[in-house]
């Protein structure tokens, strides 16, 4: 698992600007959703081109987090990347940069019946969770998925986000969510990518400019405290 670290200079900047080190200190379960990004074989299984080597290490934390989110009464959403032939035209700026072999392997492995498309088998995905497919790095780019509609349908204004890769699809979705006026919390030790350097680069930049970053334990503690407070009302 990555050694996540937010630089003190960024904590100081955020504290001076916001009056406190964290922008999210409690949750309203009814308006909160956990969005888990691309925890699929394609990004987690050794030997796949886009595998983040440490991704399986975060699975126990992700399962702990999903359990806490459900217990608090919030929603759990699972994003899954899918490849379709029309993407090579609609997102040609990305796929024109790939070799033909890489394009074909991605289309085959991330098709709906491909091994790479399947969720990592150790994830605890329950029937009442929501699953959706996405076509781009960000699930909130127009045409990429129906995530915006799902969030609107359930009255969500706060997103907890985690998954793989920290600095690609997690970051892309999280940034867009903040720009669309959602409160966003990235869970540091429930995300993974290729290196500590890349992982922490994203965490620090996101924390300073876009949203909040906290650990799995800190996020679970907030969920439990918010649920207890709501029950006492």
Summarize the helices and strands and which ones pair or pack:
Elements: H1 8-18, E1 32-37, H2 41-44, H3 59-72, E2 75-81, H4 87-90, H5 92-95, H6 100-109, E3 130-134, H7 147-153, E4 158-164, H8 166-179, E5 183-192, H9 196-209, E6 212-214, H10 216-232
Parallel strand pairs: 1-2, 1-4, 2-3, 4-5, 5-6
Helix pairs in contact: 3-10, 8-9
Largest sheet properties = 6 strands, parallel
- Strand % is 15-25%
Through-space gap between termini: 39 Å
Give the total of beta strands: 6
Rg on CA atoms, Å? 17 Å
Broad shape: globular
Order of helices and strands: HEHHEHHHEHEHEHEH
Residue windows where pLDDT falls under 50 for at least 5 positions: none
Mean of pLDDT: 95
Name the strands of the widest sheet in spatial order. Answer: 3-2-1-4-5-6
Helix content bin: 40-55%
Number of helical runs?
A: 10
Pairing-aware structural class of the strands and helices?
A: alpha/beta
Task: Report what the structure shows.
The chain has 233 residues and is an alpha/beta fold. It contains ten helices and six strands; from the N terminus they run αβααβαααβαβαβαβα. The chain has a six-stranded parallel β-sheet, with helices on both faces. Strand 5 (183-192), helix 9 and strand 6 form a beta-alpha-beta unit. Helix 3 runs parallel beside helix 10 and helix 8 (166-179) packs parallel to helix 9 (196-209). It is globular and about 55 Å long.
Quick gist of this model?
Helices cover 42% and strands 16% of the residues.
Keywords:
233 residues, 10 helices, 6 strands, 16% strand, globular
